[in-house]
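Budget justification, computational time. The allocation requested in the original proposal was used primarily to generate structure tokens for proteins on the priority list. As evidence of use, we reproduce two of the resulting records. The first is shown immediately below.
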Amino acid sequence: MQTWRFYTTKEIKPAGWMKKQLEIQAKGLCGNLDKVWPDVRDSAWIGGNAEGWERVPYWLDGFIPMAYLLEDEDLIARAKKYIDAILSRQCEDGWICPCTEEERAGYDKWVVHLISKVLVVYYECSGDERIPDVVYRVMKNYHKLLSEGAFVLHDWGKYRWYEAFIALNFLYERCREDWICDLAKIIRDQGTNFYDNVPLWHTPLNRWRWETHIVNIAMMLKFEAVSHELLGEEYRDQAEYFVDFLTRHHGMPAGTFTGDECLGGLSPIRGTELCSVVEQMYAYEHLYAVTGDKKWAERLEVLAFNALPAANSDDMWGHQYDQITNQISCERFYGRPIFGTNADDSHRFGLEPNFGCCTANFGQGWPKLMLSAFMHQGDTVVNAVPVPGVLDTGDIRIELETDYPFKNCFTYRICADKPFTFKVRIPSFAMALQVDGKDAEKQDELTFAIGPGEREINIRYHVRPYLDERPYDLRCVRMGSLLFALPFEYKMVMREYTLNGVERKFPYCDYDYVGSKKDWNMGLYATRFEKQEMDVDDVPFSSHNPPVILKTDGALVEWELLDGYDSVCDKLPKGRKAISEKREITLWPYGCAKVRMTEMPLIEE
């Protein structure tokens, strides 16, 4: 088993379309929450009277690496301002969360795990030498309180116990003290056993439960990867069992699982929460790092290049709480929502539809993906996720120029002061592989012995569009890591208002994406696909100028609206025979098509 180590923001920098995406995020909601959103701007974490639980740590978890990746001095200063305020309020005994001593027992301990993880992220980005001691004192106090029975894990802390291991592993690398291992075992023993929850995952219920909560499940996938070494346990790839089960019972074509807010089955009109997307990405990043198994990197790409951009507006000032595979309109329900447990505005694009957790949390997606692009072990470097960027360790510099996943050409410019081994992961779907203009044998990864000096490596391969079978005898179209969908025209209707003291005002307002509801009932012939590539826009996953499209054939089929709704298609078509002439249709990348049909039937002929 190959264990890879992450580089930091000091060594990795974005380039090309990835830099554009991070700049959009910095100019959007994630980069401005401390200015416009009370839960961050006025948080109890910094001495205010607003929310003092998950919101600020969630936000910092993405804001900090974004700031340092972009080397933006203003963003970095604002991150430091929050960290300074949090550190200044740490109690003498080490407790750091904003509550009184009397409130500690009832305070959900998951946030102890979360803020400790965030402080580790800050240290890796900033090198602030205060942080190791702060985290040590937090966890030492945590060990005392848990081991003495002052409190036990409950609620979110019980279901997210593994989150503490980011900080525990960080500490154990620096001081191999026995209490750290003891704390690890206490936390694991008080946490939930996920195998006990599996019987509840078979059939979705319109009932909120800890055991079926989609974000708990998405986070959980990394539990063995982050905990097995500290617990002294053999790694058994338990995540594969869970992913296989969840995919069979709740899988969505964009790589995630239905969960609005709890598991929702296989219907293409059930949504999933944006928090689950970024947490599942984070889990896969750790799973690849621990195992070196390319399946986790491929699954990570599907999430990152489809589910993540699909749930954000082009300017990243608005996001959906729930994205839906087949969504012909994104407008508030004025009757009963179609979601299992979420509210009537959950698929609206806005400031904080449904709950504000995703508002704070979605920002970690792109920065942490960038930090997973290159990994290392000893004298070996691997390009795990081929997004455009630069690795510069001081004695090794690798610049990757690419428009992947929209195009499949990669130029590596390498300058090294010492010899090293360079590996490039090749995805399973790659065809007709070429290296430096010559045909090469297909393999899981290419290995290059790099000597001191300069070198350029050029890699290209082909990918073919194909139909992927979905439940209920539906199909979706894939090409490489990209999922494709049939886009529809829509009208953006701006909603400015104030609710519960939180103002929605342009640009941080809400929007309904009101679909035309015309000719959405499409079936596929899919006997041909014609690919067309364009330049990548200033908005990489543009909802107006997609970088790649597929032309194919389709026709209307008998497919009605869901009974009782005027903006939701039915789960399945009534018939699969064409009720119109064959026509050419254009499919866009799923992440570009905000109003779309993705799972469609094959037309019977």
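The second record produced under the same allocation is shown here.
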Amino acid sequence: MKIRNILLSACLAAGASASAQDNTITVETAKLGAPVQPTMYGIFFEDINYAADGGLYAELVMNRSFEFPNPFAGWDISGKVSLQNDGPFEKNPRYVRLAPSGHAHKHTMIENSGFFGMGIKKGAEYKFSVWARCPEGGNSKIWVDLVDNATMGDDQKIGNGGVEIQGKEWKKYTLTIKASKTVEKAHMRVWGDSKVTTDLEHVSLFPVDTYMGDENGMRKDLAQALYDMKPGVFRFPGGCIVEGTDLESRYQWKNSVGPVENRPLNENRWHYTFTNRYYPNYFQSYGLGFFEYFRLSEQIGAEPLPVLNVGMACQYQNEIRDEKKVHVGMDDLKPYIDDCIDLIEFANGDPAKNQWAKLRADMGHPAPFNLKFIGVGNEQWDYKDNKAFSKRLKVFVEAIRKAHPEIKIIGTSGPDSEGQSFDLGWTAMKELKADLVDEHFYRNIDWFKNEMNRYDEYDRTGPKVFAGEYACHDRGKKWNHAGASIYEAAFMTNLEKNADVVHMATYAPLFAHVEGWQWRPDAIWFDNLRSAKTVSYYVQALYAQNKGTNVLSTTIANPTPKGQDGIFASAVYDKESNEVIVKVINTTEGSKSIDIKLNGLKNGIAKVNTITLDCSDYDMENTVDNPNAIVPQEATLKAEGSTIKANVAGKNFVVFKIKK
């Protein structure tokens, strides 16, 4: 699809074919409705699809501490290389010994292939680091090469440098290498000294230019895409990895903080889930840990929302009712409750009074992160005859309320969007007085068509809604095509109109590597060098960037019947910009003539700016090869009095930004 840079007067031209039906949209501007929460639209992160290691986390070396079940996964070796197990880091004891081969033409070397290769850019600098020693004493020199294995040139090197290793004590050494060539699937080689034995541990390579220049930082283009969305809330670290296939493989935040060299490897529950797309070497280094999550939340301007384990493994993967076999007993929940309370102290506590707060300060952030929310449990549910989840959550709620009454607690209604477990979940969350309830719905277009008024009849006095994971797809079309995205946009008008009930919403999943995905659709796709914001990403961004401060009552003369295509709209007022923002979505195939009437607008309209997302090319999607196939197009529109007349093309989402 060609990008069409259109003025709205042309894009929504009067001569286009339009329905004769009255599509007047009336917005009451004189009376402000419910506040739109700053957290209304945000992002959900889970380490699925290589979203962390190999994705957002900028580390280029896979298995840098040789702690994978196969210690040399990701590595090729030559010469005299051996694995040792008494290293300087308690939680990562393995390291490699590079000894002289004993022959001038046999070279001792280790080579890392990264995550589907290493993306290296010409002219960019890369920081190599390693903990090393000479176990027999003396000094050695190792050489580090960035290489293009597939080149037809005489030399595979695209950058290199040497590091002097001194003495028997473990020390950290660094080297900066500048690349002479762009290579999507480069490797890194480390050559041992030909005369002196050298031990290496935690072998690492980062781009110098990480997001915000952080040590142990994020890949710049992917983190920038998050900032650009203007999210209000950032949920992490998942997702099903919070539960684990079993409790041993659950994500444990205390293992993800402190010196990065001493964070233990964790088994990622996604590496063995889908046999049709199987990744046996998909693990979590914990390099992207809770400190980094909190720091990134702060940098992108989003409220952090950590989710912790409630003492239950994934119920999907343990489809049994004998909870004692897979979940923590009621008498053994204290360590899990302590994790929640200690995390609040890690985020907000006084370093002079709390060990976890002191650790935060020691890691470089003495000021608190101002955590306001905590989620407990992910997609857990009760059985009709067994309150497996809610009876555990009750103990957590009581303990957290006592220790930190200022923190809002988020429970869950389970994995279903309706039905028995969903109803049981909501009943339990009301009884426990949870502040918000996390709903999940990955559904097809037909479901979304029938749920456009989902929150209109929700209880206004109970817990608020967190639509924590959702995405739309078509039957047989589980990818990020434009045809599904337009229904996400239409559905979100109901979120906005019900901002008194819905306080948070996050599309999911967030990231996917084009060679490492197992689940789709996803918001942002990437390879080793490039990234692409999907149409669904732009839908989310247009809402987040234009969320306003208060809902305005909005009606359509002929509302779209349930389950059908038509016109959908919502409106907000923004106190800061003094704008009325109207979002209009046409899910039909044809153009629709609309009138936007702004009741109560005393002095008329000064200016109208528009942003249009054209989803009419149904199967089109943004990819890393064609990232700008469908992007928002800005335009202006003349208006007189207090009414805007326009045509909205079929399968289009238009944001009208109206200056009073």
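A brief technical remark on that second record: The chain has ten helices and 34 strands.
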